[in-house]
Structures are given as structure tokens and as C-alpha cells.
Specification:
- The chain is of the alpha/beta class.
- It folds into 2 domains: about 150 residues, Nucleotidyltransferase, domain 5 (2-Layer Sandwich); about 170 residues, Exopolyphosphatase. Domain 2 (Nucleotidyltransferase, domain 5), CATH 3.30.420.
- It is built from 13 helices and 17 strands.
- Strand 11 and strand 12 form a beta hairpin.
- Helix 6 crosses helix 13 and helix 9 crosses helix 12.
- The longest helix is centred in the N-terminal third of the chain and has 28 residues.
- Its EC number is 3.6.1.6.
Length: about 425
């Protein structure tokens, strides 16, 4: 009769041990610092606070996954008395190559993303990690990939972000639409110039000329602009408790490199019949060289002298742009900042200093194009495509509705902050988290 009693004692002790292990595990899980905010945690003022008496701080992490590299922007915002946030600090790092380089082996992109996340960890206090959103926006590089390959890369990034201590949602890793790029750049510039959170300062428009697309974004002041523009050119969004309405459009295929290919007579596909030779009056008559675009190497040559190079090139460019661009008449009366290749070609012209930026008019681009095209063989250091590029920029600006006297501000940074879409996209994302 003793054996059943002994077995009962062992069974009781066993249940007791299991119960104690469960209690310990449950307790450890909810120790301070071990708990991670769920993916749909809503940001509150308490998440951002450093102390009840001092200023509040909030951080945002934006990955810019471009075609040539991946860049991380870590923004530190100061928030006081429910005013618009102030940018207190930016940490920036970049690695190469871009995500698209790992299209055939997505696993290999992991180490680079983790390297940049370590920069974020060292820049942000650990107790704010789970309230700091981490976002990746991919641009041209992934847009050009087949959909399945792009999705595999984005899924790999999502896995890495999910395992990080930062606030993450599946939707925070995506390919960015060109229109969103324009809106985010507009938010960045108007935040840095003060127009976004001041009723006394007007907002400014932005022009961005990338390799594959070009954007125009501004805030219409005339109701007729809103009424007469194509419906998908007008977008409204909320930021800093204000509703903003903008005219914005991204012209896909009219970025400088895509346009250059079209002007030279090529198409965005493997050349028909295997030929990769392109001949153009926009190049010096004696020029012959190689140019790579979208993984295809072309032989490009100048056309034998006939009509004047400038006029012949303008004719080619006008044909490429024919009925592809809509004039935004009100834009002619607004202040605009211009970026990317608008900036680079102004530097090539000597119109602005590379580091300091400056201002340029449509007429400056036109006169520069005439000068460069009329002396195509004088300066190989300028590059063989400068005539073509300047003609394209000058015609594009006029097609967008800007008169020759219109002046643009050119700046790579404002108040020592890069004038890219990254800051605006971070604001936009944080605002969306607060509303959901």
C-alpha cells in the first residue's frame, strides 16, 4: 500500500515544479525592458518624453533604398507644448551597393541592413527603441526589378526589421511611388524653410530631376488650378494638424537618363535586331563612345555636321516631349527649389558652386545649352552629353510652364540638412501612426 502513496507524492511534487517554472517564466517575460511594443502600438506623448519637466524627444529611422546604395537617416525631433516638431539632430550613413544588387540572392542584403540598424541603436536611447518607427522606402532600383524579385528583397528586409527592437509594421517596407517622392521632398523643403508651420511664410514648390522620372510639386493658391488640373495631380494630406493640398505629378520615363536614351533614338528594352549603335545631332560630329543604360552598353556617335547642333538637338528633344507634359500655369509665379540633375548640370555650366549652390534661370540653361552645343568639340572634360542634357532641361522647364526669366533656387542642403524626400517621408509616416 506504500507504493501508491509514494507515487502520489512524486506526482504532486512534479505538478508543483511545473507550476513554479510557469510562474517564473511569466514574471520574467514582463520584467521592465523585456517587453516590446506590439506592431500596432500607437505613439503617445509619454513614448517621446525624456522627462516631465524637460523637452520631449522623438526619433524616426528612414532607410532610403536607392539604385546605387542604401542610406539610413536617423532623425531626432524636439517637441514642446504641442508645437510643430523641431529637428534637433540627424545621423546619416550609407552603404553600397543598392538592394537591387542582391536580386538573385536576397539573403545577402541582410548584413548591410543589420549594419545600419546598429548605427540606429547607437544613436537612440534604448528605452525609446520600441517607440521609434523604422521605415524603408525603395526607389528606382527596385522599381525596375521584376515584381517577384523585388518582393523577395522586401520580405527579407521585413524579417530583419521584425527581429530588431524598433517599432515596425509590414507596410513600413515598400517601393515608393514617384508622386510620394515629390510630396515628401516638398514636406522636407517647406519644413526646413519654415513655410510648413507658419502662416506668415508662403510655401515653395519643388522640382526634382532624377534618372528615371521627374517630379513637380507645389501648393496652388488659385482655386482654378485645382479645378482645371487632372484629378490625380491634386493631392491632400494632413501633417502637423494642418491639411495641405498640393499639385504634384511624377513623369515616369522623363528623368534625365531615360530621356537621354529616347533622344538618342533608343528604347527602354533590349535593342531590336541586336544593334546598340545610336547616332544623334546632340553629340559632337566627331564623337564616338560607349554609354551604359539599364545594363545595356550602347555605342553612341555624333551626327555629321548639317544644321546647327543646338537647333537640331532642340528639334529632337521637342519630339520626345511632345504632348507628354502638362503646363502648370500658376507655377510660374511661385518660388521653386530645384534638385538632382538640375543642380548637377548647373554646376557643370559653372552657374553655381558645387558645395554652396545658388540660383539659376531658365534663360541660363538655354544660353548654356547654346554655348555648349555650338562648341561641342572644345572641352571633352565637360562630357559628351552636356549639350543634350542642357537642351533637355531647358525645353522641359518651358514645357512645364516656366518662362525664360523664371529663377530657381538650387540647394543640396538647407540649414545643413539634406534636401531629400527622407525627412518629409519620416514626418508623414509618424503622423500616420498617430492617427491609427
Amino acid at each position: 500500500m506504500k507504493r501508491p502513496k509514494l507515487a502520489g507524492v512524486f506526482l504532486f511534487v512534479g505538478f508543483l515544479l511545473v507550476y513554479l517554472m510557469f510562474v517564473k517564466r511569466h514574471y520574467d517575460t514582463f520584467q521592465p525592458g523585456a517587453y516590446r511594443q506590439p506592431p500596432h502600438h500607437r505613439l503617445t506623448d509619454n513614448d517621446m518624453s525624456v522627462s516631465a519637466a524637460g523637452p520631449s524627444y522623438q526619433y524616426g529611422i528612414m532607410f532610403d533604398a536607392g539604385s546605387t546604395g542604401t542610406r539610413i537617416h536617423i532623425f531626432k525631433f524636439q517637441i514642446e507644448n504641442k508645437e510643430s516638431p523641431k529637428l534637433a539632430h540627424e545621423t546619416f550613413r550609407a552603404i553600397k551597393p543598392g538592394l537591387s544588387a542582391y536580386a538573385d540572392d536576397p539573403e545577402k542584403c541582410t548584413s548591410g541592413i543589420m549594419e545600419l540598424l546598429e548605427v540606429a541603436k547607437s544613436s537612440i536611447p534604448s528605452y525609446l527603441w520600441n517607440a521609434t518607427p523604422v521605415v524603408l522606402k525603395a526607389t528606382a532600383g527596385l522599381r525596375l526589378l521584376p515584381g517577384e524579385k523585388a518582393n523577395h528583397l522586401l520580405d527579407r528586409v521585413r524579417m530583419v526589421f521584425l527581429e530588431s527592437p524598433f517599432l515596425f509594421r509590414d507596410a513600413s517596407v515598400s517601393i515608393m511611388e514617384g508622386t510620394d517622392e515629390g510630396i515628401s521632398a516638398w514636406i522636407t523643403v517647406n519644413f526646413l524653410t519654415g513655410g510648413l508651420h507658419s502662416t506668415n511664410l508662403p510655401t515653395v514648390g519643388i522640382l526634382d530631376l532624377g534618372g528615371g522620372s521627374t517630379q513637380i510639386t507645389f501648393s496652388p493658391q488659385d482655386e482654378r488650378t485645382i479645378q482645371t488640373s487632372p484629378i490625380d495631380y491634386i493631392r491632400s494630406f494632413q501633417i502637423f494638424n494642418n491639411i495641405h493640398t498640393v499639385y504634384t505629378h511624377s513623369y515616369l520615363g522623363l528623368g534625365l537618363m531615360s530621356a537621354r536614351l529616347a533622344i538618342l533614338g533608343g528604347v527602354d528594352a533590349s535593342p531590336l535586331g541586336g544593334t546598340t549603335e545610336l547616332v544623334s545631332p546632340c553629340l559632337a560630329p566627331e564623337y564616338s563612345g560607349r554609354w551604359e543604360h539599364a545594363d545595356i552598353v550602347y555605342t553612341v556617335k555624333g551626327q555629321k555636321a548639317g544644321e546647327a547642333a543646338y537647333e537640331a538637338c532642340v528639334n529632337k528633344v521637342e519630339k520626345v516631349l511632345y504632348r507628354k507634359v502638362i503646363k502648370a500655369s500658376e507655377a510660374a509665379d511661385m518660388d521653386f527649389y530645384a534638385f538632382s540633375y538640375y543642380y548637377d548640370r548647373a554646376v557643370d555650366l559653372g552657374a553655381i558652386e558645387e558645395k554652396r549652390g545658388g540660383a539659376i534661370t531658365v534663360a541660363d540653361y538655354i544660353d548654356g545649352a547654346k554655348r555648349v552645343c555650338s562648341g561641342l568639340s572644345i572641352s571633352p572634360l565637360q562630357g559628351p552629353f552636356l549639350c543634350l542634357d542642357l537642351v533637355y532641361i531647358s525645353v522641359l522647364l518651358q514645357e512645364l510652364g516656366f518662362p525664360s526669366h523664371k529663377q530657381f533656387k538650387l540647394a543640396r542642403t538647407i540649414n545643413q540638412v539634406e534636401t531629400s524626400w527622407a525627412l518629409g517621408a519620416t514626418f508623414h509616416y509618424i503622423e500616420s501612426l498617430k492617427r491609427h
